[in-house]
C-alpha cells in the first residue's frame, strides 16, 4: 500500500513573496488526489516542497513518521526513495534511448544485476504501453510517449508515492485521457498514493478520489472529489467551468471593481467563455478491464463513509448515489437522504479518531477561503456543522 502524506501548516515564501501559507491536508494511502489552481499559484512549488527539493518556511510534511521539512539529509535521502516523480516533459536524457533512460535510476541507486535491471525495465515499459520502443530516443517519439516513458522511469524503484506535474501539458484531449487511464491502471496495479497537479478540468473531474485547489496563496479546499465538484464556492465553480466570470482574473486575482464591471458585461450578454455550465459529479474513471480492482478506491469508500456526515449535503448525496444498492444497504444509507443521526456511521465518526488519520482534521484546520463561509456551512441535515473539507 502507498504511504500516507500528512501536511500541516505548510508555508513557502521566496524572499518577501509568499507562495502559499498554512496548507494542511492528508493524502490518503493509495488514493489518487489532484491539486488544481490557476497558473502561478505554486502547484509545482508544492510538489517540490513535498520531496524536499525546496524547503518550506514553516509546517510539516510527514511521510512514514519522517517530517521531511526538518529531518536530517540522510533521512531525506531515504524518504525520497519512496517517491516517483513524473515531470512535465518527462525529463528524459535526450542522448539515451528509452531503455537506458528507464534503467537509469536502477543503475544509480541499486546494485541490481543487468539481468534483473532488464526484467524490471521491460516490465515497466510494458506497463506503460511502450513495449518494443526501448531503442527509440526521446526526440524520436511523441509527447505522449515521452510522458509514458517518464512514468515508466518513475516506477522502477517501486515508489509508494507518485507525484505528477501537469501530465496534460502539450497533449491533445484524447492523449490526456489515455494518460489519465494509465494513472488509474498503474494505481490499481501498485496501490501507490498519487498526487497530480493540473489545470485540466476533464482530468480533475473524472480521475481523482480527492480534489484540492490552491488560490490566493491558500488551499481553498481539499477533500473527496464530490465536495469540490458540487461546490458553490465562486472560485471553484469558475475554475471547473473555465469561465472569465468569477474571482480569477488574467494574472491571478480580480479586485471588486473589476469583478463588478465584468459581471455587468456578462449580464448584458457578453460571452464569459466555457461551453456551458458544467455541474454535477461525472462517473470516475475505472481501471481497464483485466487490470486489478483499485484497493485505494475500496479503502476510500469506508473512509469517506466515516466522514460523510461532515460533508456538505450535495457532496453527501453524490457519494451515496455513487454506491451500488448493495453498498447503500451495507452503509445504511439511501439516496436523497443524508446520514441518519445515530446510524452506524454517524456513531463511528464520533469515536475519537487519531488526528489526520483517515484524512480527518479538526474543524479549525479545515481549509477555506479567508473571510468566506462554506456554502452549506449552516447546519447539515444530520445536525452537525461544517462540510469537512481539508479532509480527504
Ligand atoms: N526557485 C524559485 N525562486 C523564486 N521564485 C520561484 C521559484 N520557483 C517558483 N517561484 C515562483 O513561485 C510562483 C509559483 O510558481 P509555480 O511554478 O509553482 O506555479 P504553478 O502553479 O505550478 O504554475 P503553472 O500552472 O503555470 O505551472 C511563481 O511566481 C514563480 O515565479
Automatic annotation (TrEMBL):
Q: What is this protein called in UniProt?
A: Phospholipid/cholesterol/gamma-HCH transport system ATP-binding protein
Q: Where is the ABC transporter domain?
A: 5-241
Annotated keywords: ATP-binding, Nucleotide-binding, Transport
Q: Which domain of life is it from?
A: Bacteria
Query: Which PANTHER family does the UniProt entry name for this protein?
Result: INTERMEMBRANE PHOSPHOLIPID TRANSPORT SYSTEM ATP-BINDING PROTEIN MLAF, PROTEIN TRIGALACTOSYLDIACYLGLYCEROL 3, CHLOROPLASTIC
Any one GO molecular function term: ATP binding
According to the entry, what is the taxonomic lineage of the organism? Bacteria, Bacillati, Actinomycetota, Actinomycetes, Pseudonocardiales
Please verify whether the record's keywords include Transport: yes
The record's listing under PROSITE patterns reads: ABC_TRANSPORTER_1 (PS00211), ABC_TRANSPORTER_2 (PS50893)
Q: Which InterPro entries did the record assign?
A: AAA+_ATPase, ABC_transporter-like_ATP-bd, ABC_transporter-like_CS, P-loop_NTPase
Pfam families in the cross-refs? ABC_tran (PF00005)
Query: Region Disordered: which residues?
Result: 327-392
Transmembrane feature ranges: none
Keyword DNA-binding among UniProt keywords:
no
Amino acid at each position: 500500500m502507498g504511504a500516507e502524506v500528512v501536511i500541516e501548516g505548510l508555508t513557502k515564501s521566496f524572499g518577501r513573496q509568499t507562495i502559499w501559507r498554512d496548507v494542511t491536508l492528508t493524502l490518503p494511502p493509495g488514493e489518487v488526489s489532484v491539486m488544481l489552481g490557476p497558473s502561478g499559484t505554486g502547484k509545482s512549488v508544492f510538489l517540490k516542497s513535498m520531496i524536499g527539493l525546496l524547503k518550506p518556511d514553516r509546517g510539516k510534511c510527514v511521510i512514514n513518521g519522517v517530517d521531511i521539512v526538518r529531518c536530517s539529509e540522510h533521512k531525506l535521502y531515504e524518504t525520497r526513495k519512496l517517491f516517483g516523480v513524473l515531470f512535465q516533459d518527462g525529463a528524459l536524457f535526450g542522448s539515451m534511448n528509452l531503455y537506458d533512460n528507464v534503467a537509469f535510476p536502477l543503475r544509480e541507486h541499486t546494485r541490481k544485476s543487468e539481468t534483473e535491471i532488464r526484467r524490471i525495465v521491460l516490465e515497466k515499459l510494458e506497463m506503460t504501453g511502450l513495449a518494443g520502443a526501448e531503442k527509440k530516443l526521446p526526440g524520436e517519439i511523441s509527447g505522449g510517449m515521452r510522458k509514458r516513458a517518464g512514468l515508466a522511469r518513475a516506477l522502477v524503484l517501486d515508489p509508494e508515492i507518485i507525484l505528477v506535474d501537469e501530465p496534460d501539458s502539450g497533449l491533445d484531449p484524447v492523449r490526456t485521457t489515455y494518460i489519465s487511464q494509465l494513472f488509474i491502471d498503474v494505481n490499481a496495479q501498485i496501490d501507490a498514493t498519487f498526487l497530480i497537479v493540473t489545470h485540466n478540468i476533464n482530468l480533475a473531474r473524472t480521475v481523482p478520489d480527492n480534489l484540492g485547489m490552491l488560490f490566493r496563496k491558500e488551499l481553498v479546499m481539499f477533500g473527496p472529489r464530490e465536495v469540490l465538484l458540487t461546490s458553490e464556492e465562486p472560485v471553484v465553480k469558475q475554475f471547473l467551468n473555465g469561465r472569465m466570470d468569477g474571482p480569477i482574473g488574467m494574472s491571478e486575482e480580480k479586485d471588486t471593481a473589476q469583478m463588478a464591471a465584468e459581471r455587468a458585461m456578462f449580464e448584458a450578454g457578453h460571452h464569459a467563455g466555457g461551453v456551458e455550465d458544467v455541474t454535477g459529479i461525472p462517473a470516475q474513471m475505472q481501471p481497464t478491464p483485466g487490470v486489478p480492482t483499485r484497493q485505494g478506491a475500496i479503502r476510500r469508500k469506508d473512509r469517506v463513509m466515516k466522514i460523510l456526515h461532515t460533508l456538505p449535503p450535495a457532496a453527501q448525496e453524490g457519494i451515496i448515489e455513487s454506491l451500488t444498492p448493495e453498498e447503500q444497504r451495507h452503509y445504511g444509507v439511501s439516496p436523497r437522504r443524508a446520514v441518519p443521526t445515530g446510524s452506524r456511521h454517524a456513531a463511528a465518526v464520533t469515536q475519537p479518531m487519531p488526528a489526520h488519520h483517515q484524512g480527518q482534521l479538526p474543524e479549525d484546520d479545515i481549509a477555506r477561503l479567508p473571510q468566506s463561509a462554506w456554502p452549506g456551512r449552516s447546519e447539515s441535515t444530520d445536525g452537525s456543522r461544517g462540510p469537512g473539507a481539508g479532509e480527504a
